[in-house]
Amino acid sequence: MRMYSSSSRKQQQQPPQPASPPPPKDKYERFEQWLRDNGAKFELLELREYDAAKNAPREEEEVGEEKKEPTTTEESEMRGVHARTHIPPNTVCVTIPRRCLITVEMGQATPIGQAILDSDLDLDAPKHIFLMIYLLWDRKINGSSSFFHPYYEILPKTLRNMPIFWTPDELANLEGSYLLTQIADRNEAIAEDFHAICQIAPLAQICTLEEFKWARMETKWTFDEDRQAFTITTLQHIPGGAQVYDSYGQKCNHRFLLNYGFAVEDNREIDGFCPDEVPLELYVSPDDPLFPQKLDFWTRGEVGSSSSSTQHALHLPSPSSGGQPSSSIHSKNQQYHRSTSAPMSSSTTAPSNGSSAVAAANGSPVIKRIRICVSNNENTRLLFSLLRALVCNREELRAVTSPVSSDASVSRALFGITDPSRTVTASSGTTTTYYRTCRDIRHPINLRNERASMRLLLEVIGRQLSRYPTTLAQDVADLMDERALPRFSNKRHAKIQVRGEKEVLHHFARWARTSLDVLDVIEAELKEEAGVEVQMTSAGRTITEERPGFELVIRRMEEEDSGSLHHTILRYCADVLGSLRREEYKLRRRRVHSKPTFVSKSSGSSSGSFF
């Protein structure tokens, strides 16, 4: 009895059985808990994965408690960060301590990293390489016991949005774009790095080439030394539930797409500036009567250089390639390489010896590739300088390339070309000569040359536009159809990219056409002052009304509706062509009063004058 009673009391005194253990957390919850356990702070934010089928954020109202693991058989690679509640400006919404960061030094400390440091490998992305090496090495060696395993779990298994992983059908949507060449270059550069490292270290034991490419697409963030943490601070009010965006900086869509796997639909800054670019290719035509002289001017200080101050590339012929380009030297974050039988390509700035002889010997023109955007920036000025050099006639070329101390200074004076150089006296007592490069013609030479430059620009743009299978109008219409081009799809991003390129091309085409119209007006004014009768014609009929002068034309352009003519075009016509007009008036009046004995011998491009 007692025993029974005692046993009964013992049973009654035993603690209750523990409840069933909670279901295992999904990978995102494990990742967030790992961050919190290690001192990270992000209470104001939450991570959401988007529906792979719909390519859009899931609505919590529709699914109840948010389910972060994908429910489809094909895992989504679309995810975003959202505000849990309203966040005011200047709020530090994310703090990630140093211990949760993978650094270059960690990759260098691995056996493979040490082997790379001990070698003299010239890698395409040396800093990225060490981040990649650590990630791949740690995942392979430590597996699920790795400190960073919760982070590795949430990384996408593939990166199908990155152009280097696109299928041929997806790449076909970029037809006509130079981005196709850059994608091929990126694939080639990654493969070269992989095989080079395999020669000195057992890289193949921890990853395949495809896994190496996957790791190459990961990025690093700036570390705040004062806080000893990676932080993100809000710049404006963010309402609860809204997606939180981090700035990738002011970049062209081709960089967004190539490096991050997306293109921005409306890639404009707050001030309206659009950084989208398109490369134009210029070269001296082998059919040009002045080909040797222009090629010499074209390649001064360019071919053979290994440094650059602009984002262009230099392509040199390989001894084993029969003079065809097979390697490239790049600057900053870009590498451009053509593996076709096209002309050599050059756009660096430092001088070199014997470069023009190399170009002339193999018979291939030297391409200069300039990236331009809708702006009057340094690259736009460089473009116009190169165009002026390409269309020079004999006397113009002599004037802009001749030594300062030679008789050709007369040519310079007659063209109104000022020389910013300083002469240097050598030990022999003779004065060394100053050689301008084709990059330095930052002001119009004369009316004839500027007109020819604008015509050449139209020709170059027309050649580029002809490479695309669709027109700009068709691209704009296609992007209106989100069923045919779903949001976030590779096909849509490709369409956004080529549309942006065409918008830039159409801008410069309008620039050239408007400039030609204004140059017509200036030339007509000059002829009228010289007593030459000028008639306006339209459709073969003579127009009797008074021809509008330059000032009136510019005033009408300024009074046009806002946005109808880009301000860069207006300022070029009003300021640059206006200055050219004044100089031409002065020059012609000087000729009349001084009666110069110098006679133009231009190659049939003008009669009686340089125009």
UniProtKB/TrEMBL annotation:
Composition-biased stretches (Basic and acidic residues): 65-80
GO biological process, one term: methylation
Polar residues: compositionally biased ranges: 329-338
Region Disordered, annotated ranges: 1-32, 51-81, 302-360
Biased composition range(s): Low complexity: 1-14, 317-328, 339-360
Pfam families: Rubis-subs-bind
Superkingdom of source: Eukaryota
GO MF terms held by the record: protein-lysine N-methyltransferase activity
Record-linked InterPro entries: Rubisco_LSMT_subst-bd, Rubisco_LSMT_subst-bd_sf, SET_dom_sf, SETD3_SETD6_MTase
Keywords carried by this UniProt record: Methyltransferase, S-adenosyl-L-methionine, Transferase
Gene3D superfamilies xref list: Rubisco LSMT, substrate-binding domain (3.90.1420.10), set domain protein methyltransferase, domain 1 (3.90.1410.10)
Keyword field contains Signal: no
Rubisco LSMT substrate-binding domain segment(s): 368-505
PANTHER family, per database record: SET DOMAIN-CONTAINING PROTEIN, UNCHARACTERIZED PUTATIVE METHYLTRANSFERASE
Name of this protein: SET domain containing
Organism lineage: Eukaryota, Sar, Stramenopiles, Ochrophyta, Bacillariophyta
